[in-house]
Design goal:
The structure holds two protein chains of two kinds. Chain A is mainly alpha-helical. Chain A has helices at about 5-15, 20-25, 75-85, 85-90, 125-135, 145-155, and strands at about 45, 70, 165-170, 185. Chain A has a two-stranded antiparallel sheet with strand order 2-3. By secondary structure, chain B is an alpha+beta fold. Among the domains of chain B are: about 115-295, Oxidoreductase, molybdopterin-binding domain (Sulfite Oxidase, Chain A, domain 2), CATH 3.90.420.10; about 315-435, Immunoglobulin-like, CATH 2.60.40. Helices cover about 15% and strands about 30% of the residues of chain B. Chain B has nine helices and 24 strands. In chain B, the strands form seven sheets. In chain B, strands 6-5-14-9-10 form a five-stranded mixed sheet. In chain B, a hairpin with a 2-residue loop joins strand 11 (about 240-245) and strand 12 (about 250). The two termini of chain B are about 25 Å apart. Classes of the chains: A mainly alpha, B alpha+beta. Chains A and B meet through strand 1, helix 5 and strand 4 of A and strand 5, strand 6, helix 4, helix 7 and strand 14 of B.
């Protein structure tokens, strides 16, 4: 599916079959105009600035990379939670059929109950997931501040932080999740 | 389904000839023998019931007497094959679009899943994406962050490969269910499909952006309402990961990520992020919800395996299989599919006596890596109870485990990466049922 007006393809046609695209570009000094072009592709990526991705890139890593400005406490988060989450996840995070519990649980009961409190290794995942996916009917509708608040409240429901603990980009990566030491990294077992 | 001829017992001399080439207990027959047997003209075994079936003269059917319909723009299956559908659940009323439909493995043959029957698993429904407005951004630890349109990617060199795709939760009902549920092969194992995927090597685009020193992972997200995210180690991303644009020759279906998806060969399906809109190169995994809360495997001691990527070696007999009924005594073909996330399939063994004796099934030579393999073996069923099982071995030497051995490795809460041997019990009446054996 070649598009005839693409500059690289028309160059290729002009210089004929025996000259490769790269050679043509190199001869005419055009490579420098497209310094990131890869040897095995036409190099059509358009440069973009990380600044343009602010607010679009929602990835939050365990070390706090990607966390936005703002802060929130469980005390503030309770209202958000009760208004926007509790109908499905329960007032205390107990869940209901078809909706996971967010609080309590244990890995040693039969059957085990895996929740944010009993299972999740990182607090960053709550922020990351709630901001991108919750509530299901209006994902990405909470403000960054509301996500801090409701994340703090989910942590509070699990007894991991106090009601007045201020969650922000500095404090969140330091929150120690109860089950954090219990994951075995298998990422290097690739076959 | 098996042919619905009324029982025509196998003639004695044929039976003796067949059983002289039995390769394992309870009627498993060498395929080579069967081929020779038919060619020798003693093929009455297969034809006998047909001969007896109809004494009247043949008449010409109506469709031979008048022209059929015109050629059409986009084809459909025969109206007589309309029952071959995905096994789809009722709509999710709490979290719309969340759920899965399964490939009807027991109604399919060969190794390629038609696009309309490829399994689906979504976490917030299927978005209807206009490719002209879709953007794919490659950024993070790169020399130059880049943005690509769908049209841009269509102009890149592509590769085409046949790969299976299996959800990490496939067959999970058999891993943890207290009793074996009455279900079909597709109902239990249908979060598995296989297609030819065509797309652009991710390494081509990573080269173009220029991976920065110190980078070791990619983190990918989709443009669906869940913005589903997964992390993949950079060495795998550079090895064989593609951005898939075509599926069995046509643009990938919306439920497979139209206009573009990540395709990570051999690894649990969830990492092949659909509706791909972002790859951020990083120095560590993001620990998304779907690689912490879910798609991790809890062990008996409370520890859990994280980032378990390749799918284990596995096989399932698709016919005869759960909820079918054998209505004819005599020769049947036992057939199914096998696959492994660690290479190609080297061997599939079949047992008709619950694992006491095994015979090698026939598979074609030169099996593709990371794709489905079809296996077959003749079976003479004379009305005795049987338990059919298949056991696959891959090119890395991994052998599919017995169910009990698999279950013993994990917490009872774990349903991911189940690859235990499937047992189908055949009753004296020919009813085939899912059992634990």
């Amino acid at each position: 599916m070649f598009t005839p007006d693409r500059k690289h393809h028309s160059l290729k046609n002009r210089f004929g079959k025996r000259t490769t695209l790269l050679q043509s570009l190199a001869v005419f000094g055009l490579l420098s105009a497209s310094p990131v072009m890869a040897a095995d592709g036409p190099g059509l990526g358009k440069p973009i600035d990380e600044a343009q991705l602010q607010g679009w890139d929602l990835i939050v890593q365990p070390d706090g990379t990607g966390l936005p400005e703002g802060s929130g406490t469980g005390a503030q988060g309770q209202a958000v939670y009760e208004q926007k989450c509790a109908a499905c996840h329960g007032m205390q995070g107990e869940g209901m059929p078809g909706v996971p519990a967010l609080a309590g649980g244990s890995l040693t009961t039969t059957p085990p109950l895996m929740t944010v409190g009993s299972y999740w290794p990182h607090a960053s995942t709550i922020y990351d997931y709630v901001r991108r996916a919750m509530p299901p009917l209006a994902p990405k509708s909470l403000s960054n501040t509301e996500v801090y608040q409701v994340t703090a409240y989910v942590l509070q429901l699990n007894g991991i932080v106090e009601r007045d603990f201020v969650l922000d980009s500095t404090s969140l990566p330091k929150v120690k999740m109860p089950n954090s030491g219990n994951f075995i990294d298998r990422s290097q077992v690739q076959q | 389904m098996q042919k619905n001829n009324k029982s025509e017992p196998v003639r004695n001399e044929e039976r003796i000839a067949l059983l002289s080439d039995q390769v394992a207990g309870n009627g498993l027959i060498s395929r080579r023998h069967l081929l020779g047997f038919s060619l020798a003209g003693a093929g009455g075994l297969l034809a006998s019931s047909a001969l007896a079936a109809d004494a009247g003269a043949l008449t010409r059917p109506a469709w031979s007497m008048a022209p059929g319909r015109d050629p059409s723009e986009y084809g459909n299956p025969s109206s007589f094959a309309a029952q071959i559908k995905r096994l789809a659940p009722a709509p999710n009323t709490i979290s719309p679009g969340t759920g899965a439909s399964r490939s009807p493995l027991h109604l399919l043959q060969g190794t390629i899943t038609p696009n309309s029957l490829h399994f689906e698993r979504h976490h917030a429904g299927v978005p209807n994406i206009d490719p002209a407005q879709h953007r794919f951004v490659l950024h993070g630890m790169v020399r130059q962050p880049l943005e690509f349109s769908y049209e841009d990617l269509l102009a890149y060199p592509m590769v085409s490969r046949v790969y299976f795709l299996e959800c990490s939760g496939n067959s999970g009902a058999n891993s943890s269910g207290a009793a074996a549920a009455d279900n079909s092969a597709g109902g239990i194992h249908g979060l598995l499909s296989c297609a030819e995927w065509t797309g652009v090597r991710l390494s081509t685009l990573l080269d173009e952006a220029g991976v920065a020193p110190g980078a070791s992972w990619i983190t990918a997200t989709g443009a669906d309402a869940a913005s589903l995210g997964r992390s993949v180690p950079l060495d795998k991303a550079l090895r064989d990961v593609i951005i898939a644009l075509y599926q069995n020759g046509e643009p990938i279906r919306p439920e497979q990520g139209y206009p573009m998806r990540l395709f990570v060969p051999g690894w649990e399906g969830n990492v092949s992020v659909k509706w791909l809109t972002q790859i951020k190169v990083t120095d560590g995994p993001a620990n998304f919800r779907d690689e912490t809360s879910r798609y991790t495997e809890l062990l008996p001691d409370g520890k859990a395996l994280q980032f378990t990527y390749p799918m284990g070696v596995k096989s399932v007999i698709t016919s005869p299989s759960g909820q079918m009924t054998l209505t004819r005594r005599g020769l049947h073909e036992v057939t199914g599919v096998a696959w492994s996330g660690s290479g190609s399939i080297r061997r599939v063994e079949i047992s008709a006596d619950g694992g006491r004796t095994w015979a090698d099934a026939h598979i074609d030579a030169d099996q593709r890596e990371l794709a489905l393999t079809r296996f077959r073996l003749p079976w003479l069923w004379e009305g005795a109870e049987a338990v059919l099982q298949s056991r696959a071995t891959d090119s890395a030497g991994n052998v599919q485990p017995a169910r009990a051995a698999w279950v013993a490795q994990y917490s009872p809460a774990n349903r991911f990466h189940y690859n235990g041997i499937q047992s189908w019990a055949v009753s004296a009446q020919g009813e085939v049922k899912n059992v634990y054996a």
